[in-house]
Amino acid sequence: MELSAKEVANILGGFVEGDEQIKLNTLAKIEEGGTGALSFLANPKYEPFLYTTAASAVIVNKTLILNKAVETTLIRVDDAYASFTLLLEKFATGNQELSGIDAHAIVAKDAVIGNLVYVGAQSYVAAKSTIGANTKIHPQVYIGENVIIGENCIINAGVKIYHGCIIGNNCIVHSGTIIGSDGFGFAPLADGTYKKIPQTGIVTIENHVEIGSNCTIDRATLGSTIIRKGVKIDNLVQIAHNVEIGENTVIAAQSGIAGSTKIGRNCVLGGQVGIGGHITIADYSQIGAQTGVASSITEPNKKWFGTSYMEMRDNLKSQTVFRKLPELLKRIEALEKLFSSK
Question: Engineered SS bond to 163: which of 145, 179, 203, 233, CB 3.0-4.6 Å?
């Protein structure tokens, strides 16, 4: 698709500085764009590329003040990042055209399939499951009995959804993820062995949730493991049984959350964060990469970092002291010699 800079500005509610009629036919990163490319600038550290880019046009914030002249055409908008995301959504292709059940898919006779649903080759939809309108089930997906999947979802190749689990509308689940596997529940016995505790609950995923590749979300022992609306989960994340993730929380790769823990709304968990079981994380908490959290965080809207974790400012001060320990040790030894000689 080809649009002029003026047409793009009209779509985004912005205005053009430069050639309004320049033709744009592709989207690209600002440092890689060439003729016909449309890029964007949202992160200030990429601003130097604005003055050297070969992209034909760049979306920038209306508030951006130029340090020098630019050769590219600028499309000024209120929020460059959100505007570029809108274009990516608008011009993305591939999933919306798919519909129908592939001849090599297996769909139970009593499964309920909505309008414009796609079920790819070698996928399996078990008895009494429901698939909402316009949802796309890609090849080699397993959907167990009594599963409910809402409208406009994308379930990518190789996903496994165990029996009874519920997924809302407008969700995306990436390849290799397993939803509803048994929680890690074992009772220790007197002889040192373990007896498996039946995991009889489900997983409930609300609307507008995106789950990355190769994640595991365990079903509850009783009740439901709950992923609230708007949650975004990166690849390789483990969420244990009866965990509840508050709405609009984001979790980066390789993080793990132990059983029965409740994460508040609008929290941010960095990569490789480990959260202990049966604790609560307050709303708007930000937890830095590789932080281990063993007890509840009750104060909202704070940043935490380190193992053992503490407030980020205190942790950074401690790291500064830690780096100075060799020097401090020498000074202490020198003082000891000084006083011992007197």
Answer: 145
Single out the catalytic residue among 163, 208, 241, 278: 241
Positions in the chain short of pLDDT 50: 94
Q: Which domain holds residue 20?
A: 3-91
Same structural domain, 223 and 139: yes
Task: Give 41's contacts (C-beta < 8 A, 6+ positions apart).
Answer: 30, 47, 49, 50, 58, 59, 60, 61, 64, 80
CATH number of the domain that residue 21 is part of = 3.40.1390.10
**How far apart, in whole angstroms, are the C-alpha atoms of residue 130 and residue 161?**
12
CATH code where residue 170 lies: 2.160.10.10
Active site residue 104: no
Looking at residue 28, its pLDDT comes to: 93
Mean pLDDT, rounded, of the chain: 95
The verdict on residue 141 lying in a domain is yes
Q: What is the dihedral of CA 294, 296, 302, 303, to 10 degrees?
A: 10
Do the bridges between strand 194-196 and strand 186-188 make them parallel or antiparallel, or are there none, so unpaired? antiparallel
**Structural domains counted in the chain:** 2
pLDDT in tens, 185-227: 999 999 999 999 999 999 999 999 999 999 999 999 999 999 9
